[in-house]
Structure formats: structure tokens, C-alpha cells
Amino acid sequence: MSSSGAFKAIAPDAGPLDPAVVAQAAEWIVRLQYEDSPASRQDCAAWRAADPSHELAWQRMSALGQDLQAGTRGMAAPLAAAALEQARDAGRRARRNGLKWMLGLGLTAGLAWQARGMLEGAAPWTGLLADLRTGTGERREVTLEDGTRLALNTRSAVDVEFDARQRRIVLRAGEIMVTTAPDSAARPLLVSTAHGDLLPVGTRFAVRHLDQPGQPIRVAVFEGAVDIHPHGALAVQRVSAGLQREFTAAALSPEHPLPAGGGAWTGGMLVASRMPFEDFIAELGRYRPGLLRCDPGVAGLQVTGAFPLDDSDRVLAMLEQVLPVRAEYRTRYWVTLTRR
């Protein structure tokens, strides 16, 4: 997947990229990892040549994935396919073997799922009562009446409250990406959270309830700027494009640069750059029903690459190929990554 002589090298720091283009580059990398045929390479070359931003995204993603590529270099396509099929077979066997165990859980399992949802800040009734919502692994995009585009990530819920004075989006759970639109009535747009309100300034930004003690809110700005108005006594803070920040009603974190591919989830990809394995599995687990955990013995490994969110079994099989780990399927809904 290296660049050929037909493509002009572009400096990695040549400017910001549209996250949608980054997601497309990630999709091409994943496709070539599993469908490395002359036709696929030709289609990829055509995409790269279609726009300078495509080539820049390709070069950045290729550099990002060097660690992953080193792990898969020389691996034949049939081997990859066999590994994927073995993972699926293991999952099917585990499901059959665990059926009686699952049936024996009864009401206890139901109560456990309710408690898990509450601990993750996404109680079942929160989603059911929201104007817009998504389930586990689901993503949804809508255009609001003013033209604002709203993308909901997995397990997310929002209310939309528009009146003659303001436009208000209330984040109840999960994560959203907001692309603002000018309003003919000049009403301000607010995004309200449990810890404060966000006032965008001509922008594209993501807001997420984090599954951490105190459930802080993360604001990631891709274009424009966002003013944070905490509910507490803290002063208003502005977050500019290319930065992200976390806050509660009583505290604000320092600013940090956006991670590479931070908005790639809108295109169905999870992008990692030397991400701790424990964090990667926790992130992937947001898109998969059941429990996905890693053993402490592999928590410190690092993951680099681009991975499809709509096929987590495929991602687990890929990890088994490039890292010293194996996926242990107790059932389809209870998987632990351990050292092999």
C-alpha cells in the first residue's frame, strides 16, 4: 500500500482534512488489507488521484498504519480469510456451548443489563424518552429544520427544542457530531449537557458524555470554535478548531490537539494511533452488544490502524493476526482478549 511514483508526496502537516475524507482513506486501507486485488488497487489509485485532499489523507493514514502494516506484511490473503473464518467458527461454537448458561441467567441478566446501562450513563428510559436515539452499534444522521446536520454515535440520545427564541439540542447520552447552519431568524444554537451549555461559532464539533467518574463532557472542535458555559462558577472558555477539552460543572481540563481520525466514526471507522490496547477495546466495545474486555496482561499493548465499526468480529480477528492476543468467546456477548 505504498505510494507509487504517479502520486506527488505531500507534507504530512499540509493542513487540516475533512474527517469524511479521512474516513474514506481509512476504508481504503482496510479494504486493501482484505481485498488486495489489482482491481481494488486500481480503484484506490483513482480515488487518490481524484483530489489532493484524498492523497494527503492517504499519506497520513498510511503513516499512521505503519505499525499495523509491519505486522501484516507478507501475510497471504487466504491466511487472513482463514483467520476470519476461524474467529467466526469460534464465535458460533461459543454461542452453542453457552446457550444453556445464558438461559439460566433469567431475571438476573436483565437486572445486570439495566445496571450496566445506568453505569454507562445511558439508562434505558433515557433513550426511550429522547426525540432522537441510537442503539448499540447504530449510527444515525439527521438534518434539523434549520439545516443543522446532526450525527448520533452508538448508544446516544438527544432532545431537540426549537422555538421562536432559540435552537437547543440537549445531549442526554452518548456522542453527537454537530455541523451548524445559519438561521434565518438569527436564533442562537445551544447544545446543553449535564454540566453546561455549548455555544458554537460557525462550526463543526463533537460532544460526548464520557464513561468516567463524574461523567465529564468532551468537546472536540473540527471547524470554527465553541464556547463552553459551565453550570458552575467557572468563566466561559472557548475551544478553537483542532482542539478538544473536557469539563464538568466545576472543572475544566487543559486543551489537547484532536487525535488523528477523531471524527472518523461518522464514516464508520475507528482510527487508532498507538492507542493503549485497553482503551482501544473499551472504545470498540461501545459498538458491540455484550461485554468486551481485555486481560490486564495485554492492556499495555499499543494499537495503530483503521478498523471498521460495523464488523467488530472482523476487527478482533485482525487484532489476533497482528498482536500477541487471542479472543476468548465465552458467548457471542462475552468476549475477553488475552495473551496468546
TrEMBL record:
Residues 131-226 form the FecR protein domain. GO terms for molecular function: sigma factor antagonist activity. PANTHER family: PERIPLASMIC SIGNAL SENSOR AND SIGMA FACTOR ACTIVATOR FECR-RELATED (PTHR30273), PROTEIN FECR (PTHR30273:SF2). InterPro entries: FecR, FecR_N, Ferrdict_sens_TM. Residues 24-64 form the FecR N-terminal domain. This is DUF4880 domain-containing protein. It comes from the Bacteria.
